[in-house]
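Weekly puzzle thread! Below is a chain. First person to post its structure in token form gets bragging rights.
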Amino acid sequence: MNKFEKEIAPLPKTTKFLKRILKDQICAATDGQSLICDQGKLFPGSIGNDFKNQDWNKPGPATVPVKFSVYELTKNGNGASIFNSFNRSLSELTFTPPQIIEMVKNNSSILHPEGGSTVFLIEINGNYFQVHVKFGSDSRKVSVYPIGYDVKWFTVYSSRFVIPQHEPVKQ
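Winning reply:
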């Protein structure tokens, strides 16, 4: 590790709400230019109106490859409780919208295979949002909710949560 890299503790195998089902997955680097609102072919079922109506539909910074883990819900809870169960700053648990696009395009095996939800956390203008990707028999859909919005996630649907490790990926 060089002096510019921050040592980051590994993600836990379990939290109060989740158990890890996939580890050491890689999200490729992005150029930061892709917008979810422009991904009609990737999300033919629907793209939530908030992706189109909010002022955060603008390109962001390029990203480097990042490791991530996928967790499955084991206890009912809301987004804030579930993400806070990692005992880390929420900013350490976020992806950029282009990273979510990259994972849906090129790591689609991480998506819930039976119509359940796969949830990612993003930070836009200092606010946190849950991006909810649903991949069912009809097609892929994406929607977004503020983390404080009272969206309940239930174990009966085995929702998945994707969490970045944010450690450098050796190339």
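Puzzle host: Confirmed. Bonus trivia for everyone else. The beta strands are 18-27, 46-47, 66-73, 77-78, 94-95, 117-124, 127-135, 140-146, 152-153, 160-168.
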